[in-house]
Amino acid sequence: MTQTHRTTYNRVAIILHWLMAILLITMLLFGEDMMEAGREHAENAGASDALWLTNLHINLGAAIMILTIIRLAWRLANPPPPMPASVKQWEQRAAGLVYGLFYILMIGLPITGWFALPAFLAKHPELADLSLFGLTAYPVAPALPIKIVILHKLGSKVALALLALHVLAALKHQFIDDSKIFSRMMPHG
Hints:
- The protein is mainly alpha-helical.
- It is built from 4 helices and 2 strands.
- A two-stranded antiparallel sheet has the order 1-2.
- Strand 1 and strand 2 form a beta hairpin.
- Helix 1 packs antiparallel against helix 2, helix 1 packs across helix 4 and helix 2 packs antiparallel against helix 3.
- The two termini are about 15 Å apart.
- The relative contact order is 0.15.
């Protein structure tokens, strides 16, 4: 089949989509809790539990950013299949906007988190032994004179809203429009 006749994403795109979905949902629902629990552990119980939770947060963020760059490269080399004919033109444009914002946030949130780290470590120096995937010391960004953590938290809320919109749109297309859109991103033989 030629690429113009494909109706589903290829296997690599499907794996990247669902892996990133799991990581992103985990971060959007529990990321702030990981950092809060890390702060509480650092203040009350000591740094070891706090370091583990803080490391988990930053490494999931780094993984999301790396996978996003890989996914973007893959998407450029392997364009997605066209939307089903039942998807209206304005819905296709809205989907493109949502996807674009997702990519911006999946790269931007780890970057804003990285720039927020120096202020966090200034308050919690006992957590300075962060590591990137357990391989090397986590590179700490230069300190900025602004509270970039506000931008990080706002971006997380926008990403959560986009996630909800993405899921609701997929459900609408699948069950109301009966477009079988779920089959585009499901593993196939």
